[in-house]
Amino acid sequence: MSTRSDLLITAELLLRTKGYAAFSYADLADEIGIKKASIHHHFPTKEGLGVAVIESYLFRFEKNLALINEQSPDALVRLNAFASLFVDSSENGMLPLCGALAAELSALPESLKELTRKFFQIHLLWLESNLAKGQAENLIRGDLNPKEISRAILNILEGDSFVSWALSDKVGSQSGFSLILKSIVVS
Fold it and tell me: 47-184 has which CATH code?
């Protein structure tokens, strides 16, 4: 891999495990085994590095959501696959990137704040779309508001990620996701 790729991967890991404010170019240099000047060559500012990390992640994330949609026509399968993204993060010892960024929103530069908001909107729009699809298929109760349920699902998954992080356990069966799913499914 290239130094730039190594920097992006390592910076993402640091963002998801330490937070934006808590990592420095010195941390990156130590992790990768290069000099700080080499980092500045690729990313003159930490903000620029943060933007590149988020944009790279968003690109992969949106491709992943599209892949979930391609792999299953069933809205419930899609919702479970979405929840699995949070479980995977937890099992790899990381917070979801959007949640880690949101936790530090007041300390982020404006460009990262905007990307963080965009990131959450991508989550919510995807969930809302798939909930509406589930309603059209008569899999999800038609009396529910997809916008409200999408917010509830994201709240549960993000929140559980932080609770699991604090308790040093894994997101999974203790999550409220299965509970909300049971409450929205047509019986």
Answer: 1.10.357.10
